[in-house]
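Hi there. Long-time user, first ticket. I'm pasting a complex I've been working with (about 272 residues overall). I'd like to know whether the download I got is complete or cut off, because the file seemed smaller than I expected. Thanks.
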Amino acid sequence: MTTRYTGMAYEQLFLPRLTGPEIGKLAGTGAMVVLPIAAMEQHGPHLPVFTDNLIGEGMLTEAFRHLTPEDNIWLLPHVPYGKSNEHADWSGTVTLSAQTLLSVIMDIANSLARNGFKRLVLFNTHGGNTDLLNIAARDIREKTGMYVFRIDGGGLDDEKDLLTQEERMYGIHAGDSETSMIMALHRDWVHDNKLPNEFPPITPDMKIQFSNKRFAWLMKDLSSSGACGNAQLATEEKGKAILASAGRNAAELFKIMAEFTFDQKNVPIGFL
Ligand SMILES: [Zn+2]
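Hi, the file is complete. Here it is re-exported in full:
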């Protein structure tokens, strides 16, 4: 799969390909913009630290294949760094503080609002960003009046049967799913002789889990390899299927978000 600067996402619907005056006109037509946010952080001994960026690009390349210029949905350049302090002890991680990332997102959103845009999607592919992006989304809504939406790439696909139950529950980082996607995107960026198989010391019977009754963790609390999941199960085919499915679902959500208003009933969008 070729991703960077190819396909509908980058050849036709990449906002910075346009001139300033073109963007000025476009903003007044109800255009929606999609801001991808990722991270540069360690992904075990086998994956590049650019993994979350590559996955975001891959999913959005797939998503935009299902869109046309008439949909009026435009892609912005990635914010390549995220809040990754859970990985800060590991080499290769470059993290922004919560305050810095919040400021960056708010500055981008304020600029987009001044340009006249009224709809913004935050498309995130790093779990460590999610809490902060919920805060950012609400603050943008309050300060600019824009419609703001959030999508997380993790779990966006319908290919749940491709992963084991254990992987779905605890394969949160650099495991089967992420390794498969990088194999599909850049086969030779994966170190096949270093694939980890390590799960965190959490079992389904424990009262405290990753969601709801939760604990704060750093990756060193959970893993010695820097990965959580079984990367040895990864395949390129699985990665292609996950990316294609996530892309289809993202495109469908984008179209709904482009039309969404608060007076609509029964729209399939939940609370942040
Ligand atoms: Zn990742």
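A couple of notes from our side: The pocket of zinc ion is lined by residues 43, 51-52, 173, 178 (CB under 6 Å). The chain has nine helices and six strands.
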